[in-house]
Design brief:
Elements lengths: L4 E5 L4 E3 L6 E6 L10 E9 L3 H24 L6 E5 L7 E12 L4 H6 L3 E9 L3 E2 L3 E2 L2 E3 L2 E4 L3 E3 L10 E4 L10 E9 L4 E12 L10 E3 L8 E5 L7 E7 L5 E8 L1 H7 L2 E9 L9 E7 L4 E3 L4 E2 L6 E9 L10 E8 L6 E13 L5 E6 L4 E3 L5 E5 L4 E5 L5 E2 L2 E4 L4 E2 L5 E9 L10 E7 L2 E2 L3
Length: 449
């Protein structure tokens, strides 16, 4: 087949098989992977210059293949890609190479000696997909629509602020899930450095309709007092008291049948944001799913490990993907503190972060202070394609100080999806007025071109 572009490159050194560089592409037919495994394919390429130039080009291509083998083994040094444009679109798609070689024609000695055309087959092994150019994703929430310049989020989801962005189905193209590049700019001047960041992508649990935040003041319970506070989501939090030294039901939220239908049997991490620093080091919490008469699912009893305002309580499935018109249930919160007297916790809200197995979510924690906002702003970048997570300071220096938990964050082509965010600073404060400016990119992926 004919092609306008077929080349091998590490971003610095590029060799064109089809245009220039003293080579002529004779034949190339790209393969598609039927099973998601790496692909081995080849191109017939003739080297058309004098001996010294041909030799130099062949040696350079072999060095690029050695770089590719090194990266596949060690993940060090430059990556090597094959770039391909099957027509004259002007856009080349890339696929990372893991191995390769130049195979000579049986009669190579004569051409090598007498400065005539050298016939070769160039063979390589690559990833089972093609990636397009890095593309900005338009983002929408109540603050802006179809924004690619930077959209604002906070640590709350109420009438005045959002901790989410939505993505339209038409804005993610291709036919394979594609990893993201996410940039978060700490836009709150004077904010303490953020050292913990959660990101979730809801694809399959009706992202356009699902309510992912349950306010503390919407819970019921004998020991609950709704307390006004301008520093909490919805301007209220739930002051919850109990006295027993055994495990005690302290709060209940109704989950409607419609919400369970939206949840679609998906798995969710349930996070809690407290009004202030958590007051105890010896409280165990458990969330259950219950009907009027019985426990449907029993959650894991977890010790709250520190005094921070943000904690993960459990991961559970909600709803049933095979059922419609599901009956309402209750989400129940149980507490245990084996000390006499009155125990008090101040709960702002619960957040349901959608997860897809180990994928579709991330938790980043800084081994330093994190992303600062004091007198100047810094950036946090997560680049799943390049496998990097780092902070960029005001001097444009990058700091790879973040540990990662969870699997790769992937955008799914041609479906609506919604990303949720929560952050906490190094003092343990998850302030609801913490603001971030979000930008998102991806490289569309295709199985075949």
């Amino acid at each position: 087949m004919t092609t306008s572009v077929l080349r091998i490159t590490d971003g610095t050194t590029t060799k064109n098989f089809s245009t220039g560089d003293d080579m002529k592409l004779i034949k190339f037919e790209p393969k598609a992977s039927p099973d998601g495994k790496d692909i081995t394919e080849s191109a017939e390429v003739h080297f058309t210059a004098v001996v010294a130039t041909n030799r130099a080009n062949i040696q350079l291509i072999n060095r690029l293949f050695e770089q590719a083998r090194n990266y596949a083994k060690t993940e060090t040094g430059p990556r090597v890609y094959v770039d391909f444009d099957p027509g004259s679109s002007g856009t080349a798609w890339r696929s990372q190479i893991t191995d390769g070689r130049v195979i000579f024609d049986n009669e190579v000695l004569g051409p090598w000696q007498y400065d005539t055309r050298i016939k070769t087959t160039i063979e390589w092994t690559r990833q089972p997909f093609w990636e397009g150019a890095l593309t900005a994703v338009p983002l929408t929430n109540a603050s802006a629509s179809d924004d690619v310049a930077g959209i604002t989020i906070t640590n709350a989801d109420d009438a005045t602020a959002e901790n989410w962005v939505s993505i339209k189905a038409a804005d993610v193209v291709g036919d394979l899930p594609a990893p993201i590049k996410l940039q978060m700019y700490n836009s709150k001047s004077g904010a303490d450095a953020t050292d913990e960041i959660y990101v979730f992508n809801n694809v399959y649990s009706t992202p356009a309709s699902l309510a992912h935040v349950y306010e503390g003041e919407d819970a019921t319970g004998a020991g609950i007092t709704d307390t006004g506070s301008a520093t909490d989501s919805g301007d209220f939090y739930a002051d919850i008291d109990w006295t027993a030294t055994t495990e005690t039901l302290i709060a209940t939220w109704a989950i409607s049948g419609a919400e369970l239908d939206y949840m679609n049997g998906g798995r969710f991490k349930v996070l809690v944001r407290w009004h202030a620093a958590f007051p105890y080091a010896d409280v165990w919490l458990r969330i259950n799913q219950e009907s009027a008469n019985s426990v449907i699912k029993t959650g894991e009893q977890r010790l709250i490990p520190d005094l921070r305002e943000l904690h993960e309580l459990d991961t559970q499935r909600f709803g049933d993907a095979e059922l419609a018109d599901q009956a309402a249930i209750n989400l129940t919160l149980y507490a245990l503190r084996d000390e006499a007297g009155t125990h008090t916790v101040e709960l702002d809200y619960l957040m349901f972060g959608a997860v897809d197995g180990d994928n579709g979510w991330k938790r980043f924690t800084s081994v330093d202070w994190g992303v600062a906002g004091v007198a100047y702003q810094e950036y946090f970048t997560y680049d799943a394609t390049e496998r990097k997570a780092y902070r960029t300071d005001t001097s444009a220096d990058n700091h790879p100080e973040f540990s990662e938990y969870g699997g790769d964050m992937m955008l799914i082509p041609n479906v609506v999806q919604k990303m949720y965010f929560l952050t906490c600073d190094f003092n343990g404060l998850a302030k609801v007025d913490q603001t971030w400016t979000i930008k998102l990119w991806y490289r569309p992926r295709r199985n075949a071109l």
